[in-house]
Amino acid sequence: MRTPQVTDPPGAATAGLDNVIEVGGLRQAYGDFEAVRGVSFSVPRGELFALLGTNGAGKTTTVEVLEGFRAATGGTVRVLGLDPVGQRRQLRPRVGIMLQEGGFIGDLTVAETVGLWKGLSEDAGRPVTLSGTTEPPAGSGLLGRFWGVDRQTMGALELAGLERKARTKVRQLSGGQRRRLDLALAVISRPEVLFLDEPTTGMDPEARRATWKVIEDLRVGGTTVLLTTHYLEEAERLADRLAIMHEGLIHLHGTVEEVVAGAGDRVSFRLPGITWSFDDLPRLDGAAPVLTYGGATEVAYTLTVGRPETRAHEAVRHLLAWADVRGESLERLAVRRGTLEDAFMRVAGEVE
Ligand SMILES: Nc1ncnc2c1ncn2[C@@H]1O[C@H](COP(=O)(O)OP(=O)(O)OP(=O)(O)O)[C@@H](O)[C@H]1O
């Protein structure tokens, strides 16, 4: 089992800035089982922070504590400087929540659902827009009047791409359209902080991209966003910073660049035949070769030791020197940058 990275908690570098979310040493137990075992991070105003992790890592549990749905067993949690459980009434109107599974009433129409939700919101007076201005998106007035739906509701539906479904019953929506309705409800009160728990699960690629655009626009408008996702591409595209969780702990964190740099470049080549054993292969500092046999022997190293800027260069020089001495040629010699998926697999694999 790899020791978790012992560094400053994510966001420590921004301490002192206007942190909208602060989590310090969070622990959360379900009976005897500790699902979150000491998680710390902070999210400054206007930033999008993504929580990634293996199944059961504790992402939803962490987010549920921040949303005020459960009191932490240990540690401290603040959202907009407030205690999500103890000061829930003050906090609730300023926060938008998109749960993993929204509980809808199937017989209501989409517009009725938004209207009902709007009525429940304590801060329903302001129209929803992307940029934080007070005008609803162009066109919502016309279509809204046609459907008999007010501007605020129409604004939320347009934002989620559901304006043509205003009169459709919720049970007739597809899975992806329900997720979009979830999003409309989460942003109806123009929240300062938005919690998005796997927002694009079940969406087709086009709807996913449209949702990413909505999230990006909200962030540009100043909304602070905490996102959980299993789609690494989603995190890569949207996140200012991210953390990868496994078994209740954060194991890697930073900007996408920083996390990917930790994943290490990959150097690979092919040797003819299938007679090679580990003893015959060149040694590289800190990188054990991985062998794959086909018609030839594929050899791959993941480089994690040395300066990231030059370690691939040094590894290749070493490999070529080795090949020269042996009179071999390294077929298909290739270097590729580490990816977020490599970093994720390292956390998921090595920790076990
Ligand atoms: N209400 C509960 N009672 C008991 N155990 C729970 C409860 N909710 C979650 N757990 C357990 O806590 C752990 C963390 O669950 P959580 O849902 O937070 O993980 P996650 O990272 O969101 O997972 P996934 O990516 O699969 O959605 C899991 O082992 C889960 O089985």
From TrEMBL:
Pfam families: ABC_tran. It is found in: Cell membrane. InterPro entries: AAA+_ATPase, ABC_transporter-like_ATP-bd, ABC_transporter-like_CS, ABC_transporter_ATP-binding, P-loop_NTPase. GO terms for molecular function: ATP binding. Residues 21-272 form the ABC transporter domain. Keywords: Antibiotic resistance, ATP-binding, Nucleotide-binding, Transport. It is a peripheral membrane protein. The keyword Nucleotide-binding applies. Its main location: membrane. SUPFAM superfamilies: P-loop containing nucleoside triphosphate hydrolases. Belongs to the ABC transporter superfamily. This is ABC transporter ATP-binding protein. It comes from Streptosporangium amethystogenes subsp. fukuiense.
